[in-house]
Specification:
Blueprint lengths: L4 H12 L11 H5 L10 H9 L3 H6 L2 H4 L5 H5 L6 H15 L10 H4 L6 H11 L2
């Protein structure tokens, strides 16, 4: 487990390659999000949580796994902040803290929810195969 939230926020920024300080909190990313209604922390709020080192709250949120990884938020951001990439980086951090850097094929069936969209599964395979 990582010792401090500051270290976690720095790791998220390192994994994602995103500068959350560029966010002007316009909310366009959240307005474009098809999963907005399902999320307890909206995409524009996600950026603020990373900036405020509130990573434990992000890791425990429903939003972390409700994000569809469609990157509509990335396309709509006028400042190129890429909240969807930040969300994905937090997912990776959570999985890495469990002791692994990737998901194996055997782990996936136990994690599936019948309501998960197919594009989320494709996104997970793409990101966790490294």
């Amino acid at each position: 487990m990582i010792k401090t939230r500051k270290n976690q926020a720095e790791r998220i920024q390192e994994i994602s390659g995103v500068n959350p300080r560029k966010c002007m909190k316009c909310g366009k990313c959240s307005a474009a999000c098809p999963a907005y209604e399902e999320m307890d922390i909206k995409p524009h709020q996600f950026v603020s949580y990373v900036l405020d080192d509130r990573v434990k709250e992000l890791a425990a949120s429903r939003s972390l796994w409700k994000c569809l990884s469609c990157f509509a938020c990335v396309e709509r951001c006028p400042r190129d902040v890429k909240p969807g990439i930040l969300i994905d980086a937090v997912r990776q951090l959570v999985e890495r803290e469990k002791g692994g850097d990737y998901l194996t094929a055997d782990e996936i069936p136990g994690l599936l929810d019948p309501e998960l969209p197919q594009q989320l599964l494709v996104s997970a395979f793409r990101r966790y195969r490294r």
